[in-house]
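Entry:
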Amino acid sequence: MERIAALEKVKALGPDTVVAEHKRPGGLDVVYSLDASIVYGRDFQSLIDVGVYDAKVVYEGIMEKYGGRVNSQASVSGCIVTVKSVPKL
């Protein structure tokens, strides 16, 4: 959630250009990237919020919605790291 909050703060500043850290080769540095990143982050977080603590299940949920991602390995890594950091009740 901290990442999403940070993106929302940047968006609130009203930038004209946003340089993306991860993007498709040749991708544009546009403000729309903030909105897309916020939506992706919320979708990812929603899987964790409903109690999905299996990295493979989180990955499958993300790939179902964002299967066209160029770097699916980055999604795998993100799922593993996120699931490991979620406190288990």
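Helices lie at 2-12, 32-49, 55-66, 72-85.
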